[in-house]
Amino acid sequence: MSGIDLTGMVLLAAPAGDYDRRLVLLTKERGKITAFARSARKPSSPMLASTVPFSFGTFHLYEGKSAYTLVGADISNYFDELKTDFEGAYYGFYFMEFAAYYAQENMDGKDMLNLLYAALTALENPRLDKKTARYAYEVRLMVQGGEFPQDVVKDGSLSEGCRYAFWYMITSPLQKLFAFKVSEQVLEEISKTQDRIRGKLIDRKFKSLEILETVTS
Predict the structure, then answer these.
(1) I want to staple 6 with a disulfide (CB 3.0 to 4.6 A). Which of 27, 64, 94, 105 is the partner?
(2) Once rounded to an integer, what is the mean pLDDT over residues 43-61?
């Protein structure tokens, strides 16, 4: 096995065996990968904190035939502030599950990872509306996945404000994507339209979304 360093984030973590963890990582260099962290669930393990969802940094791995083995990590952001925000954490879990759906192995994951990082950072900002951030994230990730119907900006059945909001979410620079505001009326229109688009194009249910909608209802 050869050693490799990858920049990424833990999207999902699950128990494996007595003390190990099975991780799904979104990485800049290789897209979505599966890695096993040996003894990571032991209280004395130096990888205990770095093998949980939201952990972002550099992961030191050995590459095997079907999976990677994690041997260390240098974590630069745990998103601790987001984890202590009950509602924000559920948004974050949904964002990561949505990313896991679109990410693929051996893809260039830079844009997707940057989007996810920016979205989680936006959730930590108390001045930004989380529901607006959710739809901006969904739209942009579906654009990156090549599935979003961009002609929605020409849909005459939508208000001008809603069409402009979709245009903004599709085209704005990433650093400005989450820094926009809309009226409650326009946000409700965005919500209904995007929920319809997502339901039509994605044939699966997201458990984290079901929990999020229950929490925020």
Answers:
(1) 27
(2) 96
